[in-house]
Amino acid sequence: MNPVLIFRHSPTEGPGYFTTFLDRHGIPWQLIRIDAGDAVPETLNGISGLCLMGGPMSVNDDLPWIPPVLSLIRQAIAANVPVIGHCLGGQLMSKALGATVSRNPVKEIGWGNVRATDAIAARPWLGDAAVPMLAFHWHGETFSLPPGATHVLESAYCANQAYVLNGRHIAMQCHVEMTPELIASWCDHGAAEIAASDSPGVQSPDAIQTDLEARVAQLHLLADKIYSCWIQGLSQ
Fold first, then answer.
1. How far is CA 192 from CA 14, 52, 70, 184, in A?
2. Taking the domains of the chain in order of start, what are their residue ranges?
3. Residue 2 buriedness (CB in 10 A; 0-12 / 13-18 / 19+)
4. Cα(103)–Cα(136) distance, rounded to whole angstroms?
5. Nearest-CA neighbor of 204 among 190, 216, 218?
6. How many CA atoms lie within 13 A of 153 on its CB side?
7. How far apart are alpha carbons 8 and 87 in whole angstroms?
8. Which of 73, 155, 207, 223 has the smallest number of CB atoms closer than 10 Å to its CB?
9. Rg of the chain taking only CA atoms, in angstroms
10. Each residue of 151-200: pLDDT tens digit?
């Protein structure tokens, strides 16, 4: 199998549990470190899937790597190569497909449940999950739905938590890739952002890290469902 291409946009926002999952299933992957100056490939070059991680920047920023990444997303979707986006990655997918990314009504940082909005469309990705599922959040902006997308997840503070497209692509506003190490790092690096926010959707670092192992285990149950569906579309 050709590798899954993973874009990292910030040194603190690596693929986390996503690559743990790929390794467990014997799926090769290649990391493109945008934060370290790695070049964006101009073509798919036989990759089996495209994954986009998070980052502190906005997709509306004038950054030189954004246009070629948007082009690669469009190429992948046109070629039916599965694309998955986490937070900024989901926003990049939306922008690439003609939707908009704008400020969310409130900033959302910490743990919060997500709920299925379309049981039929969500079933391949989430199973028969009729109850809310725990997810992790860290964002101030949100995406709108591109043409042809089906809305599948929402949260109390953000309406568009995930959408699917053509049965093989998924864009998420939430983070399902988190590990205890990533969360601790984000709480450390983001302490000033948390302290400066008066949003009801923002939790303190102490609150975020309470019962961390148990919460991450719940998160990985959600990630396993989503990732298991996504890899079904990878070319062998």
1. 21, 26, 31, 14
2. 4-231
3. middle
4. 18
5. 190
6. 30
7. 12
8. 207
9. 16
10. 999 999 999 999 999 999 999 999 999 999 999 999 999 999 999 999 99
**pLDDT over 90 (residue 131):** no
Residues in contact with 36: Cβ distance below 8 Å, sequence separation at least 6, in sequence order: 11
Confidence of residue 235 (pLDDT cuts 50, 70, 90): confident
Q: How many whole angstroms separate alpha carbon 178 and alpha carbon 87?
A: 12
Residues 6+ apart with CB under 8 A from 26: none
Which tokens sit at 102? Answer: 């704008």
Superfamily of domain 4-231: Class I glutamine amidotransferase (GATase) domain (3.40.50.880)
* pLDDT at residue 236 in the model: 61
List phi, psi (to 5°) of 227.
-65, -35
Nearest to 172 by CA among 236, 219, 105, 214: 219
Q: What is the pLDDT of residue 184?
A: 96
Q: Which amino acid is at 206?
A: D
